[in-house]
Write a structure and sequence with these properties.
Bound molecules: flavin-adenine dinucleotide
Number of domains: 2
Structural class: alpha/beta
Helix content: 10-25%
CATH superfamily of the largest domain: FAD/NAD(P)-binding domain
Strand content: 25-35%
Largest sheet: 7 strands, mixed
Number of helices: 7
Order of helices and strands: EHEHEEHEEEEEEHEHEEEEEEEEHH
Radius of gyration: 23 Å
Length: 340
């Protein structure tokens, strides 16, 4: 697959990776962000979107999703490129050119500078405790859905009681041959409207809903044919060609650990002048880094992004004089921001 080019490749579109686009953009650097999640916001969007945050400067209170929405608006003038639902799997230096970054779909991006804003690491789906599930993973057991059309005509068993399980039940019902939703309790941890819509589909007979647990998978060569569901009154075998478990996500350091960078207790040590790692041209900002006095706060990550951008500029445009400017008074910054 043809590789693309950018000044700065940012690994992680959490709040800190997003704000880095702003600071880099003010200094005329283009950014490409990659995140394993299907949307921006990192922990804010994935773990606590509706919780209020009280320590963002200038915002006495803002929800975590509200902050992400504001950041997306703030960086829009710089037109960053996003690759969502993609994990950065490899990182190699190319002499005199910077770095080649490999994604899990085989795509490569060449960048002069790499910024690791990977937070606590990559979000990875929790695996349900079903014996032998590994043999079906990626073929007929799917933890994320890239294309709904790929599931057309399938017998789907969706497992879980949160928003993901409910949303996919509603979205895939018109596409699948049959959808069976399995949850161990009659109560759900999902938006009430989604729960009501799911119950309506169940009552009209358009989906099946079973209170229980999937205990056994049957099939050959990674292709499922049936699953066994244990319910209060016994076991049932259900036709299933695709199993979609939504048991939440955990954070693991993941591929970051394999890039030859110095690590300290699963964090990347950086200096506090440039927030550069042990490799020149690779920076680490936000929750993923460590230094004396580090606080895992969003506002600390924002400060780190500002200083990192100054150092990144010296690599992307060597010899160019960097003029310190305020956004309030600089007409050239106003132009970049589209201020009339
Ligand atoms: P993250 O938000 O973790 O984002 C990192 C992103 O990188 C993720 O989206 C991940 O998918 C992606 N990623 C990682 N590895 C890869 C890879 N190899 N390829 C592709 N993508 C990758 N902070 C405050 O300041 N105030 C608060 O009140 C506050 N409350 C909190 C409440 C809760 C419940 C939690 C869990 C955290 C709270 N925090 C708070 C902490 C705050 O959310 C973090 O400090 C912040 O999210 C760190 O931002 P980040 O961009 O560094 O990383």
């Amino acid at each position: 697959m043809e590789g693309s080019k950018t000044d700065v490749l940012i690994i992680g579109a959490g709040p800190v990776g997003l704000f880095a686009v702003f600071e880099l953009g003010l200094l005329d650097m283009t950014c490409h962000l990659v995140d394993i999640l299907d949307r921006p916001g990192g922990q804010c969007a994935e773990l606590y979107p509706e919780k209020p945050i009280y320590d963002i400067p200038g915002w006495p209170v803002i929800t975590a999703q509200g902050l992400v929405d504001q950041l997306m608006q703030q960086i829009a003038p710089f037109k960053p490129v996003f690759s969502f639902g993609r994990m950065v799997t490899s990182l190699e230096r190319i002499e005199h050119e910077g770095f080649r970054v490999g994604l899990d779909d085989g795509q490569t991006v060449n960048a002069r500078v790499v910024v690791i804003a990977a937070g606590g690491g990559s979000f990875q789906p929790k695996r349900p405790p079903i014996p032998g599930i590994e043999a079906f993973e990626g073929k007929s057991v799917l933890y994320s859905i890239k294309r709904m059309e790929a599931l057309r005509g399938h017998d789907l068993v969706i497992v879980g009681g949160g928003d993901s399980a409910l949303d996919w039940t509603l979205n895939l019902q018109p596409v699948a041959r049959r959808v069976t939703l399995v949850h161990r309790r009659p109560e759900f941890r999902a938006a009430p409207d989604s729960v009501n819509r799911m119950r309506a589909l169940w009552e009209s007979g358009d989906i099946d809903f079973r209170i229980g647990q999937v205990t056994k998978l049957d099939g050959e060569d990674g292709q499922l044919s049936t699953v066994t569901i244990r319910e209060a009154d016994g076991e049932t075998r259900v036709a299933c060609t695709r199993l979609l478990p939504f048991f939440g996500l955990t954070m693991k350091l993941g591929p970051v650990a394999d890039w030859g960078l110095s690590l300290h207790e699963d964090r990347i040590p950086v200096d506090t002048e440039k927030f550069q790692t042990s490799t020149s041209g690779i920076f680490a900002i936000g929750d993923i880094n460590t230094y004396p006095g580090k606080l895992k706060l969003i506002l600390s990550g924002f400060h780190e992004a500002a200083l990192m951008a100054q150092a990144a500029k010296r690599i992307v445009s060597p010899g160019e004089r960097i003029v310190f400017q305020y956004t309030t008074s600089s007409t050239s910054l106003h132009k970049k921001l589209g201020v009339p």
